[in-house]
Amino acid sequence: MNSLSLRSAFIIICCLLLGGCGAEDPGTNGAPKRSGESITVSAAVSLKDAFTEIGELYKARTGRSVDFNFGASGTLQQQIENGAPVDVFASAGERQMEALAEKDLLVAGSRKDFARNSLVLITPKGSEKKIVSFLDLVDPAVEKIAVGNPKTVPAGQYAAELLAKVGLQEKLHDKLILAENVRQVLDYVVRGEVDAGIVYSTDARQAGSEVNVAATADETSHSPIQYPIAGIVGGKHPEAAKEFIDLVLSSEGQVVLRKYGFISPDAK
Q1: How far apart are CA 144 and CA 115, in angstroms?
Q2: Residue 36 pLDDT class (50, 70, 90 cuts)
Q3: 266 and 210 in contact (C-beta within 8 Å)?
Q4: Which of 102, 207, 218, 256 places its Cα 20 to 30 Å from the Cα of 117?
Q5: In angstroms, rounded to a whole number, what is the distance separating the alpha carbons of residues 36 and 186?
Q6: What is the phi/psi pair of residue 121, to 5°?
Q7: Do the beta carbons of residue 210 and residue 125 sit within 8 Å?
Q8: What is the per-residue pLDDT for 26?
Q9: Ordered DSSP codes for 162-197
């Protein structure tokens, strides 16, 4: 065997040992995995549990990890406006997404509604305060009510609309404790630091027996609680961002969202 043949045989053996000369590992759907690559997703904190699970599905499917940035939608919106490196934004309100659209910060055609939610009034486990409706919040025995800050927290904006609708906004003004996001409202109630709080039904569900759901807001008392998602202009991984959005919108992603109590955007 001449030296050229020996060299060829050596190269073939090395390729076999290295798994096909660097061929990419196929994902669960036959698409190549891109190990080590990650995308950044800024999402409303109410999505934390559901999106964390969807992120694991995304990694299993594509080989890419997801760096999540969870927080109040308004705060995340401001971060994106200030140039934060984000591939995907998922908001708990249309207002924040619309603000980015007006500044041409959304990838054209990428914006989609993917979930809905409802608003509930919760009280601490074992509370002796008689609160079974939003109107009971005017009782002098109810001293502290936690809500999201309406300036940056969609849940707080919906809560403000609700209280105005039922004529309680002025009456409860001095009782309101403003939180940085809806999960902080939940924490205040779980720890018994307030008498009541207004959160999404999905948050109350995650708290389980740690809170009591005293009442559910009528859908006509506030703006529709729609969750939109979109790719962000300037994101480093536009194709990977689209794959994440597609997964959220897929039947598989919707199953995960329903598991955590979210409602399909087109449900009646």
Answers
A1: 31
A2: low
A3: no
A4: 102
A5: 35
A6: -100, 125
A7: yes
A8: 40
A9: HHHHTT-TTTTGGGEEEESSHHHHHHHHHTTSSSEE
